[in-house]
Fold each of these.
Amino acid sequence: MRRFFVAGNWKMNTLSRSAAELAGAVARAVPAALPTVQVAVCPPFPSLTAVASAVAGSGAELGAQNASPEKPGAFTGEVAVEMLLDVGCRWVILGHSERRLILGETDDSICRKVRAAVSQQLGVILCVGETLSQRQSGQTEAVLDGQMQGSLAEVDERAFARIVIAYEPVWAIGTGVTATTEQAESAHSHLRNWLAARYNPRIAAETRILYGGSVKPQNARSLLEQPDVDGALVGGASLKTDDFLPIIRAAENIHKG
Ligand code: PEP
């Protein structure tokens, strides 16, 4: 059984005070680890320490939104994996489409970050997903295969103890347009088959694949009920407890056989 994972990607939102308030509300709602749902919040770098204090001792874990592939040193503006661990991060989101498309990250650079994170036991939420034009031209599966291959090059199966995949169709991120349950399940099952072929059936069966893209309380349940959907990476809705907490509750109320 794969434990659900619901993670909030706060993107470039919140100041330290609002971040601590939001994290505090999540921590109060999830005072201890939930048996069937892992929960994480991923604030911007400057709020990591405030959020770490707010979630300390609760069932909510801390994640970052990026990491340098380099060891600490002369890399102005970068943040090393060691620094994320030092402030209590258990997770880092890597390969988000906003970083791929706006900030020019490539599969190669993402792969170096994945390797740096897992080599130090920092969990990775690795995002993959196609654009609208790629979907419309029938390239979805080829794009996913290329991103998985490139971002996981030379990443061996032991690393999968700490890797979660997030399928995030770019056309669904922040748009209010959500993938249908059929589109989501089809992409997730394709990714799971990719893991079985590239690694082995055990890795495929154990690795969690989250869906991300306009997840809201209204659509969470039907998405999370899909056999290969193991949780959600939530952007906009993670900034409001009235939206984020019901998504966690939706996961808690699903029991897959
Ligand atoms: C995201 O940025 O990872 C995301 C899924 O955003 P939203 O939920 O706002 O579409």
Amino acid sequence: MLIVMKPGAAAQETDAVVNVIQKIGLRPHPMPGATRTAIGITGNQGSIDGRRFENLPGVAEVIRVTKPYKLITLDLRPEKTVVRVGNATIGGNELAMIAGPCAIESHDQAFAVAEAVQKSGARFFRGGVWKPRTSPYAFQGLGEKGWEIMTEIRKAFRLNIVTEALEESHVDLIEQYGDVIQIGARNMQNFSLLRRAGRSQLPVLLKRGMAATLEEWLLAAEYIMAEGNYNVILCERGVRTFTQHTRNTLDLASVPAIRRISHLPVIVDPSHGTGSAYMVTPLARAGVAVGADGLMVEVHNHPELALSDAAQALTPSQYAQLVGEVRAIHEVTTPIANESRLETKVA
Ligand code: PEP
Ligand code: MN
């Protein structure tokens, strides 16, 4: 159920609706928009009798939700969500660049990469502190030592720190010194982790599971939002197919497909999406051209020595070149994208 308030409805009128929702034991999710506020309702198992809301002052419309999702949809918020992180945004006019090594390996490695990506204009520094590895014998990340290095980088470079939480206790730590909680492909349906991230004040970068449909991915985002955290960024990182020329098949069609359904920002990860450094820049260009709000790119100061994902890491100079190219594409495509959004609305 979705309650749309009249444009110009008073704050007290919205509060009164919120009150009724709480009194009947359900959870209201008010989403103020450019022209009107809509209130999503969660917590009900079956259908709700929406007629009780129809005559409340300020209510324009009560809409029964027939789709599987309630909070990620454009019905609830017709404008795109802009996630604000410190001095940066994701989903606004700027192209969000999130760059850094696959894993934090040492103080020197992390500082060298952070310095390089910052020089090329990244506002976000990514780096795995806890690594989800297929093999138990592979490098698992430095853990808390790595987290200390991340927090030093945050201070030294004033970069926003993005790191993956593998379990709920990692969320506690990221909340103390981090900026964005990453939930990786392997944990996209770790429901207790999604719920924990949903109770955080920090934005959540939710990667697509390696065999997840769009609907499953969006429902994972619903888990986070249903707990009250509306700052979710979706990250397309490829899905497993029969191809052998790439690590994953980067499904760039998911970007416009999500745009049709959801107000959430979407970024593209061409590193895990291809698995090979030589393909990262071409797919990054394509990601921006299809309308991604940002990119997440793995960079290493010595890719040949990387402890994880060596084959897909760009050198700092390759990364600098990529940034120049994608910014140029973004400048051209943003006005086109805005125009086609307008046309879709008119039609
Ligand atoms: C990562 O970004 O470090 C990562 C492990 O990616 P994914 O979850 O997409 O495999
Ligand atoms: Mn990686």
